[in-house]
């Protein structure tokens, strides 16, 4: 058996080895072959990664920086010319604190706007690692964030002093159909024949749903939230997640291609990945309405 496998492997690899030996003997052909392999990869990298990042409207260097940030920066710069380094560091610390207060004010302003709505809204506080489902500004379920990852684009936006502008207005949910579990599960049962059978069924326990929880929420202003369960996955769950990741990648490529066909550059999305307990993630996904509002504190 081992001999047969070795012989089969030798036959399988022989054409490939011969091809490589031919390339070594013809350097020009090898160079052309390398270019043919590299060009498609460079084209895909340019259109799907480099151009979307370069075209991100929320990171662009424009004159839209708030007057408050400019005043703080100018004051710090002017003072640094006449005071010692200790005072300069204190002013820089005050400037950072003012920017943090601007972000906190933007978060509270967004929550205030959402409190006027009659539907369930979502509030995410990354500082305290909390996700809250709220109604009229009152938390109805709070979930602990066990781990989270933030796109580098958000860090750059914060470094430029423009994060509070992006967070002031509540975000609006655009897409929520990419998930490994149904949004509204349906349980089909056969109607009881009589009262006795109905009473007997009333004592039966409803089986617990066993679904691994992974879903993506796409909001306006290029914000994407990816929710993952913290519990280990079963074999079936790994297969579902693999298919889910393929769908996410396909959706990103499809969006980029549509933008290019329309004569536009693909937009770079701000991605935040959140890891929660399975039941918490499931409750959030099924409680949110289609056009849910979001307040984010970063």
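Sequence proposed for the structure above (298 residues):
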């Amino acid at each position: 058996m081992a001999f047969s496998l070795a012989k089969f492997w030798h036959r399988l690899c022989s054409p490939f080895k011969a091809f490589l030996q031919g390339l070594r003997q013809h350097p020009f052909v090898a160079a052309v072959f390398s270019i043919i392999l590299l060009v498609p990869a460079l084209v895909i990298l340019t259109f799907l990664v480099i151009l979307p990042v370069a075209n991100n409207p929320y990171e662009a260097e424009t004159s839209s920086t708030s007057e408050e940030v400019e005043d703080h920066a100018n004051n710090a710069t002017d003072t640094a010319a006449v005071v010692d380094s200790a005072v300069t560091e204190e002013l820089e610390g005050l400037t950072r604190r003012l920017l943090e207060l601007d972000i906190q004010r933007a978060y509270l302003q967004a929550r205030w706007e959402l409190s006027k709505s009659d539907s369930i809204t979502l509030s995410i506080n990354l500082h305290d690692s909390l996700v809250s489902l709220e109604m009229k500004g009152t938390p109805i379920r709070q979930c602990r964030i066990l781990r989270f990852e933030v796109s580098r684009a958000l860090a750059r936006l914060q470094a430029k002093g423009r994060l509070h502008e992006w967070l002031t207005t509540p975000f609006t949910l655009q897409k929520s159909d990419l998930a490994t579990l149904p949004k509204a599960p349906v349980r089909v049962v056969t109607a009881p024949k009589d009262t006795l059978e109905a009473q007997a069924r009333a004592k039966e326990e409803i089986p617990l749903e066993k679904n691994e929880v992974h879903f993506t929420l796409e909001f306006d202003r290029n914000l994407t939230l990816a929710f993952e369960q913290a519990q280990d996955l079963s074999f079936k769950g790994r297969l579902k997640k693999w298919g889910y990741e393929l769908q996410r990648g396909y959706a990103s490529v499809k969006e980029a291609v549509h933008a290019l066909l329309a004569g536009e550059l693909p937009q770079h999305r701000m991605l935040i990945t959140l890891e929660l307990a399975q039941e918490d993630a499931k409750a959030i996904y099924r409680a949110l309405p289609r056009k849910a509002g979001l307040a984010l504190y970063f």
